[in-house]
Amino acid sequence: MDDIDYYTAEVFEDVAKEFLLTLNKSGRLPFRFTRIGRWWYKNEEIDLVAGLVAKTSKEKTK
């Protein structure tokens, strides 16, 4: 039973990602994200993050 996290973690991440994508597409979140995925920094990992990608100054002038 100790290994259950190992076997279920990836499936949970996939289900959570699909759920957020569905909510985003239907406009049922308080914001609309343009990117979704994992985040790493040094030894830290967040399995699922969603957010907006800021436009560059070139994109803003178009």
Features:
44% helix; alpha+beta; DUF234; two-stranded antiparallel ribbon; 2 strands; 2 helices
Detailed description of the structure:
This protein is an alpha+beta fold. It has one domain. 44% of the residues lie in helices and 24% in strands. The chain contains two helices and two strands, in the order αββα. A two-stranded antiparallel sheet has the order 1-2. The radius of gyration is 16 Å and the shape is flat. The mean pLDDT is 86. This is DUF234 domain-containing protein.
Quick structural gist:
The chain is α+β, with helices and mostly antiparallel strands and 62 residues long.
Question: What secondary-structure arrangement, pairings included, does this model have?
Answer:
Elements: H1 4-26, E1 35-41, E2 44-51, H2 57-60
Antiparallel strand pairs: 1-2
